[in-house]
User: What shape does this take?
Amino acid sequence: MRLAPAAAVLLLTCLPQGCSEDPYDAYCEVVTDNQAELTRTIDEGGPDVLLRALPVFRELEDAAPDDIRDDWRVVVNGLAALEAALDDAGVDPATYDRDDPPEGVSEAERDRIDAAADDLRTDESEAAFAAVEQQARDVCKTPLWL
Assistant: This one.
């Protein structure tokens, strides 16, 4: 007996991870599991609030279904680039002041930090942040944070 090509593809893609698991259910569970921590982090505020949320954002990116994964990638990669620029310059994100950088921060390091921060304000980044928030509300019926 020969399987139709579409059935064969479906069978091959379902075997490794199983087709019964809804990727949205798994993602929504991760959203719900991390909501309290994200709420606490966001409520604490500060200039480094999104960087402190980065570990949770990475977890959400890993769990994200295909239709939102690229948006999570934009969010996580943008924040990771800023984190790396700050780390490479040896500055604390919570206290870094662009107008009065710590002694020893070179112009090149400051430019890299500025570029990474500017990338988080692009239309693409802003759209990605909005998309992941909206996805949680629409699909999971809950916000990422309260």
